[in-house]
Design brief:
Layout (H helix, E strand, L loop, with lengths): L1 H10 L7 H11 L3 E3 L6 E3 L1 H20 L3 E2 L5 E3 H5 L2 H7 L5 E5 L2 E9 L4 H11 L8 E10 L13 E11 L2 H21 L5 E5 L11 E8 L5 E11 L1 H6 L2 E3 L5 E3 L1 E8 L1 H10 L16 E5 L6 H17 L4 E3 L6 H10 L4 E5 L1 H6 L1 E6 L5 E5 L3 H26 L1 E2 L5 H13 L6 E6 L3 H11 L2 E2 L2 E2 L18 E6 L3
The structure holds one RNA strand of 79 nucleotides.
RNA sequence: CGGGAUGUGGCGCAGUUUGGCCUAGCGCGCUUGCCUUGGGAGCAAGAGGGCGGGGGUUCGAAUCCCCCCAUCCCGACCA
């Protein structure tokens, strides 16, 4: 086992040595992505893309169940559209790529590559909505988006990314706010139950708000290096975009009114989050509900006993497949040990080994990716057992992530000095500064100051904070909000 | 976008200081054959690169100079 670990470490940098190297090693060794020829762009390889397809499926199902329909709007957005909502332009213009000419001829109006679609969709909604009878409009789109970020990280922040953006229009504020919360809750439920990632739901501070939103809400997840990833956002846009794009309707009372809109999005960064929440020094670890392969079968044993082993492997394979499990058999010529390591690195939740001894005893060996445990299972009960095991692994992965988050969440810090001491202490120790629950007076100055002094930013104001904080961690005055602070991606 | 580092077969690297022993070497991987299979097997024979890209200096450049590009790390901006 010792040698085994050493040889692995040659391929994947240990998390404790350099977390970001570990992350980059892992996503490449697990064959999720490759770098594309254009700066900051990646190729989603089949293994990585299938993760996205499964996330998509989980989300899309819930969107449809709540009455939304998918549509597609163009990727090219006229420059003038961006100008119609002031904060929106200011927020996005620094990272907008432009199309300025076609076959050498300058376009009359530059076209931006969508960083998000509020503007085009607002334009279309103004045409489509005339009466309260036309509302609500509940549309989602699966698309790519462009944001030319200075610093890119595969999956977490790339110049082009894939996402889902929902855009809805409602008759009144109350209904729009309900929609905002309903979609935030869907994100929380999908991310927790499917990706096994615990999140804090809450409200963003004004400084962290989406450009052009009245209120922004988010789900925030803790990575294994203690940093935060915003895993989904939902915005109440008020009538700001309605006013910018003249989205008006005639209400029951014969008054012309502006609609209230929402937008909500989640992206392929969820893949990166999943890697950084569950992965370990062996590589990727995927939650069973999302993993493209749930069970990998590896027949072992000498050539002269191969036939019986393969027959048994087929039998078990078919029974698992019939039970609806995503199962595959690895018949490559590599040695068993090599395959064990390979599939562990790729994050497959359960491995089944079948050898001559198992055939004799009428059993298989099941190995768990999450704990490394090996279990002997009678063949007759294999299907039921494996199904139960996958559920247990899914649950265990969530519980482990929850426990990790609890271990690295700090609620006793009340001053900037204490916060700095805490961060310095973490740097001396395991390097995981984690999240700090702090009081905040609500001023931009304090928020800015905390960031400058510590590198920690406000993640969100949780709806259900574990404890309420009385004084602002920065100025010492009475706190208006209890916020999560941390470093973030 | 600023500071630092790196860029040599698929991957990891040596060679760059002091140009010529390099029409480039090593490990892994790859191909073929034999052999082997319960935690990264062994032997043998092979294939594969002109040194991130473009200019320049020189009799001669992976090595020196200039420009550009990409990636990583650290900061400022963000899903």
């Amino acid at each position: 086992m010792e040698d085994n670990n050493l040889s692995i470490s040659k391929e994947i940098t240990p998390q404790s040595e350099n977390f970001s190297r570990w992350y980059l090693d892992t996503i490449r060794k697990a064959d999720l992505m490759d770098y594309a020829p254009v700066r900051g762009c990646i190729v989603f390889k089949p293994e990585g893309f299938e993760l996205w397809e499964r996330i998509q499926a989980a989300m899309d199902k819930r969107f449809k169940e709540t009455g939304h329909r998918n549509a597609y709007f163009p990727m090219l957005i006229p420059e003038s559209f961006f100008q119609k909502e002031k904060e929106h332009v200011e927020g996005f213009s620094p990272e907008l790529p432009w199309v300025t000419e076609v076959s050498g001829e300058k376009l009359e109006e530059r076209l931006g590559l969508r960083p998000t679609s509020e503007t085009v969709i607002g334009h279309m909604y103004s045409k489509w909505i005339n009466s309260y009878r036309d509302l609500p409009v509940l549309i989602n789109q699966w698309a790519n988006a462009f944001r030319w970020e200075k610093r890119t990280v595969p999956f977490l922040r790339t110049s082009e990314f894939l996402w889902q953006e929902g855009h809805t229009a409602h008759v009144c504020e109350e209904e729009a706010r309900q929609e905002t919360m309903r979609m935030l809750e869907i994100y929380r439920e999908v991310v927790e139950s499917e990706l096994a990632i615990p999140v804090w739901t809450g409200k963003k501070t004004p400084a962290e708000r989406f450009a052009g939103a009245v209120d922004t809400y988010s789900i925030e997840a803790m990575m294994k290096d203690g940093k935060a990833v915003q895993a989904g956002t939902s915005h109440y846009l008020g009538d700001k975009f309605a006013k910018g794009f003249e989205i008006k309707f005639l209400d029951r009372d014969n008054q012309l009114k502006y609609v209230h809109t929402t937008s909500w999005g989640s992206s392929t960064r969820l893949i990166g989050a999943m890697v950084m929440v569950h992965g370990d020094d062996k590589g990727l670890a995927l939650p069973p509900r999302i993993s493209p392969t749930q069970v990998v079968m590896i027949p072992v044993g000498p050539q002269n006993k191969r036939a019986a082993v393969l027959a048994k492997t087929d039998e078990v394979f078919l029974s698992l497949k019939e039970a609806g499990l995503r199962v595959r058999t690895d018949l490559r010529e590599e040695t068993p040990g090599w395959k064990f390591n390979e599939w562990e690195m790729r994050g497959v939740p359960v491995r089944i080994e079948i050898g001559p001894r198992d055939v004799e005893k009428g059993q298989v060996v099941a190995a768990r990716r999450d704990t490394g445990e090996k279990i002997f299972v009678p063949i007759g009960g294999a299907v039921v057992f494996i199904k139960g095991l996958l559920d247990e692994i899914q649950n265990n992965m969530y519980q482990k992530a929850l426990a990790f988050r609890a271990e690295h969440s700090y609620t006793h810090i009340d001053t900037l000095a204490e916060l700095k001491t805490h961060i310095a202490g973490a740097e001396q120790g395991d390097g995981i500064a984690g999240w700090v629950l702090a009081g905040w007076c609500g001023s931009d100055d304090c928020e800015k100051n905390i960031k400058e002094e510590t590198g920690f930013t406000t993640r969100n104001i949780p709806f259900l904070p574990p404890v309420g904080k009385e004084i602002c961690v920065c100025c010492g005055h009475k706190s208006e909000h209890t916020v999560w602070l941390s470093r973030s991606y």
